[in-house]
Specification:
With 250 residues, the chain is of the alpha/beta class. The chain has nine helices and twelve strands.
Length: 250
């Protein structure tokens, strides 16, 4: 990506983030948290799933249908049996675009086709229903694509760092990264404490889970530590679709 393209990408994202599309107000009755996995690599389930189970937690797995059963650039992704198993365990299967393409690069027609293709791919694993939750691939978003996704899902997640407190945008929820490339225990702990004080919604995210993770993944120890700190704070952890009505007191 050239310097100009990088600048344009950042400007597009900034405009989208500064333009709320679906405003909501957290009820502020209790803190809530969610743990989410993007794409998702197979070990996010085979290694990450047991860690969640040990803490008595369920997560949200943002699924790109085009990755099913494939190995891409050395990353082994989930397969249909993994989807069935995590759904049976009560985890949420969510939408991440079929082709895992940055949404601002897609025309309106291509964006609609990709989104619908992934929704149809996921339906058999959701008892025929459409997914409730969506996350932008690579966290790339424009105002156009934000407006497109907002009415099609109950909640939409980005990758902008921060916690969700008070007035929030359900078309681009904030997150706290557990990725190795930005791992910072003090920052994560501060986010937990703020959500605890302000009865906000903490959304954690990562990708792969292994002893030798990618820069975008976490080690089992990192994931276990973060979830342990949330548990120690007494914050309930629920999949995105279940955390939303709790956060809004619907």
């Amino acid at each position: 990506m050239s310097r100009l393209q990088h600048f344009q990408t950042r400007l597009t994202s900034l405009i989208a983030r500064k333009a709320p599309v679906r405003i909501a107000h957290l009820a502020g009755r209790k803190p809530i948290a969610s743990i989410t996995f993007d794409d998702f690599p197979k070990n996010a389930w085979t290694a990450g799933g047991p860690i969640l189970a040990r803490h008595g937690m369920r997560g949200t797995y943002y699924t790109a249908g085009g990755f099913c059963g494939r190995t891409v650039n050395g990353t082994v992704f989930y397969d249909a049996d993994d989807l069935k198993a995590l759904a049976a365990a009560g985890h949420e299967i969510a939408c991440h675009g079929f082709g895992h393409q940055p949404t601002p690069t897609l025309s309106a027609t291509a964006l609609a086709a990709d989104s619908e293709r992934n929704r149809e791919f996921l339906r058999p694993f959701l008892n025929g229903k459409a997914p409730d939750s969506y996350a932008f691939p690579y966290g790339r978003v424009s105002l156009r694509t934000k407006r497109y996704m907002a009415p099609r899902f109950t909640n939409v997640r980005g990758v902008h760092p921060g916690v969700n407190v008070g007035r929030i945008d359900l078309a681009q929820l904030n997150t706290i990264s557990l990725e190795a490339r930005v791992w910072n225990e003090a920052y994560i702990e501060a986010a937990i404490q703020r959500v605890l004080r302000e009865n906000g919604w903490l959304v954690l995210y990562t990708h792969d889970v292994s002893d030798d993770p990618s820069p975008y993944g976490s080690t089992p120890r990192m994931l276990d530590w973060a979830l342990g700190r949330v548990a120690a704070a007494g914050i309930d952890v629920l999949p995105m679709r279940e955390a939303l009505p709790v956060a809004l007191a619907l």
